[in-house]
């Protein structure tokens, strides 16, 4: 059974941070930055600007700085023909792009690759809408199951999904669905809810495409705030607290339409203290960026993240007396099993993970630690697979990669140590400074706030974050001056009250 959980949302114009808290401890942290949101998944009503028969491509104007790129292979009619001929076992004849689209034509397209450098966005006219458990293909009739789900389970899941899709289909127009990996163990009610949500989203896109002019954005992939209601809220969720009245109203409106069961859990946080201070979340984040994690027993973990895999080493800490040696190691390993599972969620570590527990001589101790580890990992919403102890006494496991790890998102390679360590990015330090000013303004009433920081951080405050800095100054009613200090490292700063 799931533990009771609370969800805390800290919103600012530049960044949204979401913490999932269980029994007073942070289990997950999700971060989304306004300037770093991509376009992938967005649906536009595009206008064909140019057709290039020689490249079998077209440039589509979707209202961005540069025209986007659509290749014949990504046109819906070509995709459909390919599906049909693949089933017959015959090669698919490709209809030339100049016979499918013409200049000035309005066309429904979706971004499949963000613009990079001088290249425009890459598009497809085959629309797919991702839900929590399913992907909806409104122009297709195909019912599929993720290749990562074991082969022997796929056919039964496909039949079940087909029956659910047919049962809720309006006027026989079913559309296609693909079951995602995390939908493998979902019940019919959860799958039915996802089907209804996706069909409603598609109906809104179609309606907008008839009312809005070409080059309009018709659908944007959900923001982190909306994904909280779609993906993170469950039966165990007691409250969802957010510290912005404006975003609270938007979230309520979204919840009423798409996730009615979550609306009653929404609360507007009006406390004096910043919402993340309630559970020392910033402190937890700082710990999650470090290598060492202390355990209550006096032991500790060392977490090392590399490109290929993550290793977690369990240590007893102090001297262990001979009399209770086995028992002390067993208790330390049991505690470490829960701590490792939590750190994987909090840091969002994916891929291969190797846990090096302290060697145990008794087989029943090894089995109990493994059972505890599996029990703690079962609470993870991301799929995990654990093998037993190897001949070397290591536990190997995998955790599905869903997004960048916390360290990759909040940090960058340190230019001083040439990538051997890491420091917070200038933007992360900037946001720390903005939050610190807001915190100080609630406690003190100076004439002015002066920020002394490294030149790189000051540059970010003057350039990309100047609007947010000005907005904060207006909000607290005090001027904020900036002073670069070349001797300061990127993470160092002082806020002087004048």
Set down the secondary structure blueprint.
Layout: E1 5-12, E2 15-22, E3 25-33, E4 43-52, E5 57-61, E6 68-71, H1 76-88, E7 106-113, E8 122-124, E9 129-130, E10 134-137, E11 143-145, H2 151-167, E12 176-179, H3 188-211, E13 216-219, H4 224-232, E14 237-242, H5 245-258, H6 260-263, E15 266-268, H7 281-288, E16 292-294, E17 300-305, E18 309-315, H8 325-347, E19 351-356, H9 363-377, E20 384-389, E21 395-399, H10 406-410, E22 411-413, E23 422-424, H11 426-443, E24 449-453, H12 455-462, H13 466-476, E25 480-484, E26 493-497
Parallel strand pairs: 1-14, 11-12, 14-15, 18-19, 24-25
Antiparallel strand pairs: 1-2, 2-3, 4-5, 4-7, 4-13, 5-6, 7-8, 9-10, 10-12, 16-17, 17-18, 19-21, 20-21, 22-23, 24-26
Helix pairs in contact: 2-3, 4-5, 8-9, 11-12
Attribute tags:
single chain; OB fold (Dihydrolipoamide Acetyltransferase, E2P); about 500 residues; 4 domains; Nucleotidyltransferase, domain 5
Describe this structure in words.
- By secondary structure, the protein is an alpha+beta fold.
- The protein folds into 4 domains: 5-37 and 223-281, eRF1 domain 2 (Nucleotidyltransferase, domain 5, 2-Layer Sandwich); 43-219, Beta Barrel (OB fold (Dihydrolipoamide Acetyltransferase, E2P)), CATH 2.40.50.140; 289-406, no CATH class; 426-497, Hypothetical Protein Ychn, Chain: A (3-Layer(aba) Sandwich), CATH 3.40.1260.20.
- Helix content is 34%, strand content 27%.
- The protein has helices spanning 76-88, 151-167, 188-211, 224-232, 245-258, 260-263, 281-288, 325-347, 363-377, 406-410, 426-443, 455-462, 466-476, and strands at residues 5-12, 15-22, 25-33, 43-52, 57-61, 68-71, 106-113, 122-124, 129-130, 134-137, 143-145, 176-179, 216-219, 237-242, 266-268, 292-294, 300-305, 309-315, 351-356, 384-389, 395-399, 411-413, 422-424, 449-453, 480-484, 493-497.
- Strands 4, 5, 6, 7, 8 and 13 form a 6-stranded antiparallel beta sheet that branches. Strands 16-17-18-19-21-20 form a 6-stranded mixed beta sheet, covered by helices on one side.
- Helix 2 packs across helix 3 (188-211).
- It is globular, with a radius of gyration of 26 Å.
- The N and C termini lie far apart (54 Å).
């Amino acid at each position: 059974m799931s533990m009771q959980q609370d969800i805390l949302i800290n919103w600012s114009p530049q960044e949204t941070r979401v913490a999932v808290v269980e029994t007073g401890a942070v289990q997950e942290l999700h971060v989304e930055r306004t300037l770093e949101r991509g376009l992938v998944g967005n649906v536009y009503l595009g206008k064909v600007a140019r057709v290039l028969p020689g490249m079998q491509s077209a440039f589509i104007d979707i209202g961005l700085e540069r025209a986007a790129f659509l290749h014949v292979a990504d046109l819906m009619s070509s995709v459909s023909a390919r599906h049909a001929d693949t089933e017959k076992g015959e090669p698919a004849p490709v209809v030339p792009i100049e016979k499918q689209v013409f200049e000035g034509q309005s066309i429904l397209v979706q971004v499949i690759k963000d613009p990079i450098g001088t290249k425009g966005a890459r598009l497809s006219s085959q629309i797919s809408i991702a839900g929590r458990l399913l992907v909806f293909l409104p122009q297709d009739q195909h019912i599929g199951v993720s290749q990562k789900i074991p082969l022997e389970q796929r056919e039964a899941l496909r039949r079940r999904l087909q029956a659910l899709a047919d049962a809720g289909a309006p006027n026989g127009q079913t559309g296609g669905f693909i079951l995602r990996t995390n939908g493998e163990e979902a019940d019919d009610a959860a799958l039915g809810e996802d089907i209804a949500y996706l069909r409603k989203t598609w109906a809104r896109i179609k309606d907008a495409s008839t009312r809005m002019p070409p080059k309009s954005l018709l659908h944007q992939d959900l923001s982190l705030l909306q994904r909280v209601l779609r993906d993170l809220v469950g039966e165990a969720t007691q409250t969802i607290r957010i510290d912005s009245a404006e975003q609270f109203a938007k979230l309520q409106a979204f919840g009423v339409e798409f996730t009615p069961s979550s609306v009653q859990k929404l609360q507007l946080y009006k406390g004096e203290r910043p919402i993340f201070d309630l559970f020392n979340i910033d402190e937890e984040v700082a710990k999650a960026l470090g290598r060492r994690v202390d355990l209550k027993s006096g032991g500790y973990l060392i977490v090392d993240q590399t490109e290929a895999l993550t290793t977690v080493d369990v240590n007893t800490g102090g001297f262990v007396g001979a009399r209770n040696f086995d028992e002390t190691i067993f208790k330390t390993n049991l505690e470490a099993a829960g701590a490792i599972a939590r750190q994987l969620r909090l840091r969002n570590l994916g891929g291969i993970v190797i846990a090096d527990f302290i060697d145990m001589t008794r087989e029943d101790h090894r089995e109990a630690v493994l059972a505890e580890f599996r029990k703690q990992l079962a609470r993870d919403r991301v799929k995990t697979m654990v093998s037993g102890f190897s001949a070397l006494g290591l536990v190997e496991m995998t955790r599905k990669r869903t997004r960048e790890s916390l360290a990759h998102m909040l940090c960058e390679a340190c230019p001083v140590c040439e990538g051997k360590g890491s420091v917070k990015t200038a933007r992360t330090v900037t946001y720390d400074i903005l939050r610190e000013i807001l915190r100080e303004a609630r406690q003190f009433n100076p004439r002015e706030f002066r920020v002394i920081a490294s030149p790189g951080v000051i540059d970010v405050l003057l350039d990309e974050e100047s609007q947010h800095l000005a907005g904060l100054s207006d909000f607290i009613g005090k001027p904020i001056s900036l002073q670069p200090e070349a001797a300061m490292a990127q993470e160092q700063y002082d806020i002087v009250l004048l």
